[in-house]
Each structure stands twice: as C-alpha cells, then as structure tokens.
Write a structure and sequence with these properties.
With 226 residues, this protein is of the alpha/beta class. Helices cover 25% and strands 17% of the residues. This is Broad specificity phosphatase PhoE.
C-alpha cells in the first residue's frame, strides 16, 4: 500500500518505520475534555505506561534514531523514559498536537455534561467534518507531513512520534484510504498504544498495531479527545 492508500508495486528496498505512539493515562479526576489545555500531566498509571513503552522500544529489536513529541505535557512526559532508555534527544513538532475541540475544558456527556445544554447542540450538526472541532482533512495534512519529515530524517531506521488518539487514528484512516468519519468508540488506539507505519521508500507497505501496556489498561481513562 502506498501513501493515501495506493498500492506499492515497485517500492525501493530502503525500509523505514514510523511509530505513532499515543501518550499514557492522564491525571484527570474531573473527567473534562482537556484537549490542548496546559497542565495536564500523566497519572501514576500513565507513568507506568510510559516506562512500559521505553522497555518496548529498548528491547533490542528496534532501530530507533528519531524521537518526536507533541508539545503537550502528557506527550512529552510519555516520551521522557523512551528518550532516557535510548539515549536520544527529543524534537518537538507542533503538528503532532491534539485536535482542537469546541468542548475543550468542558465535561462531555448527556447527564451533567455539555450535551444537556441546547446552546452547544449546533456544534454537533455535522459529524462528517466534524463541526465541533478541527476538520479531519486538516488533521490528516499536518500528521502526514510530520510523518513524512520523520521518515526522511530516519530513513533506513525507525522513528517514534508521541501524539494523541484522534490525530493518530485519523492519520491511519487516511493512510489506509478509509473514510475519515467514524465511531469514536471503535478507534484502535488505546492509551500507550503503538501504531506502526512501515514504509519502503516513501510508499506505505503496511500498518501494524501493538499495546505494550495492555495489562495496565483496565480502568484507565477513556475520556474522548485525549
């Protein structure tokens, strides 16, 4: 498969892998949709998840030469043990940031959440765009550009990019030539998960998925937009 879902028929033999990592669990006792808000750091379990990711990438089977993080605190904290284990510097890329969202800073739900208030309903009229936040196509453009830059910098090796659930999932859907509109409950992108994009030259061969911290997931935060 090539970039944008096109099949790779005559791919060069230079193989490069870009790992899209979702950050670990965040300390969020009020269960708000924190989005791009500053000051949200990893919970104790999130720190264990980050340590598990460091073990995963430093197990001797990977050839990591490039580390890139979203500018948000939770992403950088997730990257810290990985960088320490590999002895590599971390580059910050604004394009890996969480998607913007109208409901940022609010609780999101029907009970005591934002959805019980009619003034918010107009922001939900178009799930295909979506009307409540950053358009899916804009997320694809910035994420694919960040992936391309990391792939070029790590040619013949591997890169680790720490980002957020929605941008990672939307980027994957676009790479696999799938529709961008989706059911958020069906995203294959758990906390501390690794979505690996395997390239031959600049053409995507396949995508694999791993959950190095799967045993830490039960009871972990599932607040949307994390």
């Amino acid at each position: 498969m090539g970039v944008g879902g096109k099949l790779c028929k005559t791919c060069p033999m230079v193989l490069t892998t870009v790992h899209l990592v979702r950050h670990g669990e965040v300390f969020n006792p009020d269960k708000i949709l924190y989005g791009r808000l500053p000051g949200y750091h990893l919970s104790d379990r999130g720190k264990l998840m980050a340590d598990r990711l460091a073990e995963y990438f430093a197990d001797g089977t990977h050839d990591i030469t490039e580390l890139v993080s979203s500018p948000l605190q939770r992403a950088q904290e997730t990257m810290q043990p990985i960088a320490a284990a590999l002895g590599l510097a971390v580059r910050i890329d604004e394009r890996l940031i969480e998607a913007s969202n109208y409901f940022e800073g609010k609780t999101f739900g029907v009970g005591d959440g934002s959805l019980r208030h009619p003034q918010h309903w107009p922001h939900l009229i178009n799930p295909f765009k979506p009307s409540w936040g950053e358009p899916y196509k804009e997320q694809v453009a910035r994420m694919h550009a960040a992936v391309a830059d990391a792939r070029n910098r790590a040619t013949g090796h591997e890169a680790v990019l720490v980002s957020h659930q929605l941008p990672i999932w939307i980027a994957r859907l676009a790479f696999e030539d799938r529709r961008l509109w989706h059911d958020p409950r069906k995203r294959e992108c758990s906390l501390a998960s690794v979505t690996s994009l395997h390239f031959a030259g600049d053409s995507l061969k396949n995508v694999t998925y791993a959950e190095p911290a799967s045993d830490l997931l039960p009871g972990a935060s599932t607040v949307p937009g994390a």
